[in-house]
Amino acid sequence: RQVRTDVGTGAGHRRGGRTSVTRIALPDLAAMGAFGAAIADRLRPGDVVALSGGLGAGKTTLARAILRTLGHEGEVPSPSFAIIEIYESPGVRLPVVHADFYRLERPQDVEELGLDDYRSGAVLLAEWPEHAGGFAQEPACLSITLEMPQEKSEPARIAIVEPGTDWLGRMPCP
């Protein structure tokens, strides 16, 4: 079940050129995989997929689904300890930087990692983007917050999807 909620002011824009928020129910791993595949099918070099949510919300699971759809056949370790994992062709359709910023103590630490050098011409899958200062201000950022059900009566994990302006017309959901 998907619900689209338009938000914004004036010309339909708010911070970072963002125009709407979509909520998507992800009741099981198959739904998570299908959502990841839909994202992967629409990725372009320079895109950022910013994955937020609590521990165990499914950020790495969604990143794995995206990487599998892009052609990666091997294991996809969580980059929690390495912080950055690189996937390059011919193993994937597009070069991908998969980063987990959970262990960063301050956003300035991203500069020490040389993230900008890795990002050139690649897609960035960013877990815990808020620890790196965030990416929502970038037009090519697709921000996704994964929320777990708070009560047993709630049906499923929810993905709250907020596209940057570069994503308009190629959203991975209607």
Secondary structure layout:
Elements: E1 2-6, E2 20-26, H1 29-42, E3 48-53, H2 59-69, E4 84-87, E5 96-100, H3 109-113, H4 115-119, E6 123-127, E7 141-147, E8 157-163
Helix pairs in contact: 1-2
Your description of this structure?
The structure is a single chain. With 174 residues, the chain is an alpha/beta fold. 20% of the residues lie in helices and 26% in strands. Strand 4 and strand 5 form a beta hairpin.
Q: Which structural class should the secondary elements be placed in? A: alpha/beta
**Tally the helices: what do you get?**
4
Largest sheet: 8 strands, mixed
Mean pLDDT: 84
How far is the N terminus from the C terminus? 11 Å
β-strand amount: 25-35%
Summarize the structure.
The protein is an alpha/beta fold and 174 residues long. Helices cover 20% and strands 26% of the residues.
Question: Keywords, please?
Answer:
174 residues, alpha/beta, single chain, 4 helices, 8-stranded mixed β-sheet
